[in-house]
Amino acid sequence: MARSIRRRPCRRGVTQVMSGLGLIEAIHPADIIANADPDDTNGDGISGKVPMVRDPQSGTLALGRFGWKAQSATVRQQAADALAGDIGISSPDARRSHGDCTSAQTVCLAMADGVQARLGDTEAPDPVLGLITFYSENLAVPARRKASFAETLAGKKVFYDTGCVSCHVPKFVTRRDAANKAHAFQLIWPYSDFLLHDMGEGLADGQPVGVASGSEWRTPPLWGIGLTKTVSGHTFFLHDGRART
């Protein structure tokens, strides 16, 4: 059945890196929370805030790890929200066939969807959502390139000397009891503290999401971004693509 796909306005260059999500989920919450300093008590100018969110599956509070504003606690939740919010595809975890249409948008809500009764009451029922989650959890991080090159080592020194590592924390060790044994007890280098930081009015989008204000953002991981041009055909960075390198 033909259907209309309702897309929200898109800005080029805002897609986040998909690799390594399962490893991020395997970091013990205590290791992320240990870097939080919401009131900057140590006076270093860095005030990372813990993004606690409601896990839609358990109903309990959990550490947000995914999304521009750390609004999703799990890879599955992130996948379900992306299906619904980005392209209007419903799933058992986000039953929004009409995407982010509001109750006032009656024409949008009246449009046909892709639900097929013989397959279930959503457009991406299990096992579809489960398969998307599995793929997202296990997409590997690209191998590090040119690690011993002089230019790479010089860049690493600048990165450390200028304090980038205060937010882009280089490494973690994943938990021994990770749900997926393939992700357990690994030394990983995501370069993120996965906390929320107020980036000021210059980078604000004015949209509160979860516990994040309109000017707060999750520190994005940096692994794999050296291949952005190869994969995406551009080098637009930040949430709105305003940075060109």
Characterize the structure shown.
The chain has one domain. Helices cover 22% and strands 7% of the residues. The protein contains seven helices and six strands, in the order ααββααααββββα. The strands form three sheets. It has a two-stranded antiparallel sheet with strand order 1-2. A two-stranded antiparallel ribbon has the order 3-4. The N terminus is likely disordered.
Task: Please give a quick description of this structure.
With 245 residues, the protein is an alpha+beta fold.
Helix content: 10-25%
Count of the domains: 1
What is the element string, with H for helices and E for strands? HHEEHHHHEEEEH
Which value, in Å, is the CA radius of gyration? 19 Å
Q: Percent of residues in beta strands?
A: 5-15%
Unreliable stretches: 1-13
**Overall pLDDT confidence:** 91
The number of E-state strands comes to 6
The computed structural class is alpha+beta
Spatially, the strands of the biggest sheet line up as: 1-2
Assign an overall shape.
globular
In whole angstroms, the N-to-C terminal distance is 43 Å
* Main sheet summary: 2 strands, antiparallel
Helix segment tally? 7
